[in-house]
Design a protein that fits this description.
This protein is mostly beta strands. Helix content is 7%, strand content 55%. The protein contains two helices and 15 strands. Strands 1-2-3-4 form a four-stranded antiparallel beta sheet, with no helix packed on it.
């Protein structure tokens, strides 16, 4: 079972992926005294193996899934229905983790085939990044440096600070963590 929780129109949206390949969304209204849970929708995904990871984009409308099979799927929350909008196939079965990032607009899958698979938000394949010698277990991307440095008045220093690269960190069962400059990785 995997879960993802995020804010959506003032409510908490809980998305749950089950070993039966079912994907369900709930809205949670939390107060000091109680939690009200409202089931929004449920869908049987096209995955043939148990769901392992879910990621929801920033506006909580697109839900990305990966499983022990070689499928990566995108679903759109449309009122009270989940509609599959895109799918992609990994070259080998198994995605440990899927992460959706706003900046850059990338979906990353940590694969059992020792590669990070990068897609755009429509699941168009961008690139595979390989370095590790065992299954990948996690992937994350740093946020973009948009805030100015405190107490620095030099415009050139501030400009260079904002030009700092974003980093992608990847963890593997080979007991290594690799760091990648996202801009360099995404260059054609």
């Amino acid at each position: 079972m995997c879960v993802c929780i995020c804010a959506n129109d003032g409510l908490l949206q809980l998305t749950v992926g089950y070993e039966s390949n079912k994907l369900r969304c709930f809205y949670l209204q939390v107060s000091n005294a109680s939690v009200k849970v409202t089931a929004v929708c449920s869908v049987q995904t096209p995955h043939t193996e148990p769901l392992l990871s879910i990621s929801v984009n920033q506006d909580a409308q697109n839900i990305y899934t990966c499983a022990a099979d070689n499928s990566v799927c995108c679903f759109k929350l449309d009122g009270t229905a989940l509609v599959k909008t895109a799918a992609a196939e990994l070259s080998h079965p198994g995605g440990s983790l899927i992460q959706c990032f706003q900046t850059p607009q990338v979906v990353a899958v940590a694969g059992w085939d020792y590669a990070v698979h990068l897609y755009d938000h429509g699941l168009k394949h961008l690139k595979d990044v390989r370095f590790h010698r065992a299954a990948l277990t996690a992937v994350d991307v740093s946020s973009k440096c948009t805030e100015p440095l405190p107490d620095i008045t030099d415009d050139l220093v501030q400009q260079r600070w904002k030009m700092q690269p974003q980093w992608m960190a990847v963890a593997s069962r080979d007991s290594r963590i690799s760091l990648w400059n996202v801009n360099a990785v995404l260059q054609p």
